[in-house]
Every structure is written in C-alpha cells, then in structure tokens.
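Structural prep section.
Before we set up the soaks we want a predicted structure of the protein with adenosine-5'-triphosphate in place, mainly to decide which crystallisation condition to try first. Input record follows.
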Amino acid sequence: MNAITTHPALPPVSVSADSFRPPLVSLRGLAKNYGIYQAVYPLDLEFGEGEFLAILGPSGCGKTTLLKMLGGFIEPSEGRIVIGGTDVTRHPPEKRPTNMVFQGYGLFPHMTIRQNVGYGLRIAGKPKAEVDARVADMLALVQMEPFADKLPPELSGGQQQRIALARALIMRPKVLLLDEPFAALDLKLRQAMQEELRRLHSEIGGTFVFVTHDQAEAMSLATKIVVMSRGRVEQVGTAEDVYLRPKTHFVSTFVGEANFLKAERKLARVSIESAFSFDDPGADGTVLVGVRPEKVRLGPAAAGCDHRFTGTVLQRVFLGAQVQYTVRLTNGETFLACRPSGELSPGDAVEIGWMAGDQWVVTQ
Ligand SMILES: Nc1ncnc2c1ncn2[C@@H]1O[C@H](COP(=O)(O)OP(=O)(O)OP(=O)(O)O)[C@@H](O)[C@H]1O
Ligand SMILES: [Mg+2]
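Run finished without errors. Recording the tokens verbatim:
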C-alpha cells in the first residue's frame, strides 16, 4: 500500500467553487425616502449570477423604487449597491452592467423595430455590421424577424413587449431589470410571455430581476423571491420557502390562502387551548398557527393527523380541479379546506386535521 495515501477513512475534501464565489449583486442598507415618506426602508440583499429574482409585493410597496435604484434611475437616500465587486451606487445607468425594461414598453414610436433594437449599440458607437448582426440574432431569439421593418404602433402589446426585451438583452447586461413587463397583457399572452422569458433565461443565462405583484407569476418564474410590504423586505426565499414556511402574517396571506388559529407561546412551547401543543422557539405571547387549505384533511382522512378539531361544514364550493369547504370549528373559528373531491354537505358534522409538518407559526 502506498504510504502517502494513508487516510482511507477520511472523505475527499470537496470544495465547491460556489461556496467562495462572492454574490454578483450585494445591497447594503439600501433605502429611499421622499421627504418624510420612506418608500424603501434600509435593506440588505444578495444574489448570485444566473439567479432569476422576483420582487413581489402589492402596489405601492416600493418594488419599482428598488429596481430603479439598482438600475441607477433613482438615487438612494442611504446604502450601497455593489455589482460584480464594483460599488456602483453613484454610477449613472449607462455606466452600470444593468439594463432595464420599464413598466410600459418605452419603445421609440417613430423608429422601426430594427432601429429600436439596435439603438443602444448605435449610441455605444458599434460598427454597423456588428449592430446589424446582433439585431438579427436578437429578433430571431424573440421570434420577431418578420416585424423588423414595422413601427411599434403597428404591433400588438405582446409583440411590443418582446421588442422591449430584445432591446434590453442586446446590450448583454450582467443584470436585466424587468418592471412588471407583462402586467398589461391578458392571461393567455402573459403565460406565453412567461414561458418565453423562462426560455430566454435558460438560453442566454445572465441574471434577471423581475418585479411583479402576481404571486403565481413570481412562483412560476423565480429561483428566489423577495416579498415586500410597505417598503420593507418581509422574506427572501424560494417559492417553497415563502409558500410552505412563510415568516410573517403578510407573507402567509399574500402568497396564498391561509387558515390561522390563535395560540399562546410560553417557554418555547405553542399551545392552542387544550387541543394540542408543540415546540416552537420564540418570544412568549400570542401567536398564530397557519395551515394551507389543501393541507387540511376532512372526515375519515383526518383520523391519522397530528392535530385534529371537530366542526360543521358551512359551505361547499365546486371549483373544478378541487372542492373547497368552509368549516366552522367548535371553538367558533372558520377553516378553509380544499380537497380533490368530496361529498360532504353544509350542516354535516366533520373532523378536520393536519400534520404538524404542514403548519407554521407567525406573530400577528
Ligand atoms: N417621486 C416620488 N415622490 C414621492 N413619492 C413617490 C415617488 N415615487 C414613488 N413614490 C411613492 O413611493 C411608494 C413606492 O412606489 P413604487 O413605485 O416603488 O411602488 P411599486 O411597488 O412599484 O407599486 P406598483 O405595483 O403600483 O408599481 C409609493 O407609495 C409611491 O407613491
Ligand atoms: Mg411599480
């Protein structure tokens, strides 16, 4: 045996390159106020190359303000923005490795599609042959070649949106910033454009930051979701994190339907009346135990559940893919339960239950 390799019991040291790679974008204490109005409270956020980040929140919560600070269109009141190791906080938009697609398309109406897409490269002084070649590539990528010589007003909303995307992507930004790009489109077209954006992201790589107030859109596209409310970041995580393990009451209800039961936490143990209790670290006081309607089991299916209550069916609504029941519990609270099928009727006494792993705890 070779004396040098004498540690067969030790696993090989594997160092993932990722674990040492600094984040592509790093925001530190970034904030914006308009006079006494705080549009974005100081926030810290990091994300890596190749990430598809969604900034999700209701109207007025500060999404556009945050995105425009990233792109250099709004000057932060406080904090720093570092992209690719360079502090760009005071850099103008054209000096940043970012490009932004604004709410609305912002195409030049008097320029042809070809001229719109090539605009940034022409301004940057690229030779005509290179501009022509890259414009042709981009139009092919967004499948708009036949429209090259038309004017924007001759195009549909979805077609204009694709051109706005092409015009930003042609600059090969390290970070592409998209502000509610599909908000004006109808549902079918929006879904088609989401599919297109997913394809573009996987084909060309790069890092996308996508603003939306549509939780389904955020969950279906993003590798990481930043949930905002009233100028604050409430949670950062994957779609599963924010849906299955929401950290706040706001996140619980913004990303889906949630049932809540009032409970008391004392010495790291949460209890609901005398019904059940479980360990959960945190401050003493009143808390809410949350559970999603599709995790609630009814009738005989509730028998094996960790937590059970009895109640009465108030309402049964057939929703096609599922049946939604409203159940009044014996303690007076109402619960929603969604099942793939079911024959219970209003007035039926029913047992409901759920597994401990399907619940979460938030404060009010
Ligand atoms: N220039 C400004 N002066 C004063 N207040 C502003 C200014 N721009 C934005 N605000 C306020 O800051 C808050 C955040 O605005 P922002 O545009 O970032 O919201 P948003 O999340 O993008 O909303 P929406 O989903 O409606 O686009 C809003 O209450 C808005 O009224
Ligand atoms: Mg906005």
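Observations: Residues 1-17 have pLDDT under 50 and may be disordered.
Flagged for discussion at group meeting.
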